[in-house]
Design goal:
alpha/beta; 9 helices; globular
Length: 207
Amino acid sequence: MKKIRKPVICCLDLEGVLVPEIWIQVAERTQIKELRLTTRDIPNYDVLMRRRMEILRTHGIKLELIQKVISKMNPLNGAEAFLDRLRMKYQVIILSDTFYEFAMPLIKKLGYPTLFCNKLSTDSEGFISGYHLRQPNGKQKATQALKSIGFEIRAAGDSYNDISMLKTADRGILFNPPKAIAQKYRGFKLAKTYSDLFRLLDSPSQE
């Protein structure tokens, strides 16, 4: 009896894969260099977020200003066409460590793909006062859960916080990662363009 292939879900990181890094855009808008650090630079997400919240409060930057910066951002060149092409063949879920309060204007511009991410809280003055993960290691656990209910998972990301997702997936691909990450995780296929990424996600078996 011929074995039936599992249905495929493609899980993609958001920032660095489909849209620019939000915090880098905020850093450029506010001229605060320290905000340029992302999960490409600091693997420990809690350390990174606590540092960001402290910097924002020190400089008087409230959530409203960050949202204004994000509202003017656009997806990376070619991202919309890539995502449309991918969704013609596969279900796609965006697994991100960003926050709904940040991401929704960009998700709208991408045609409202399914997004799993996190939440922020603010204080009475409008400063970001905390962040709330749906669960620790959300990308990895979402990937594990989807596999456990019978899906084949193909995933793409670019940062340290994507590595557990890529390792858990049936197929993990690094998309334009920093040189240090590409060198450290040589076991993953590397894509530098959306054409490369689509080919690696779409191929019947890992090349």
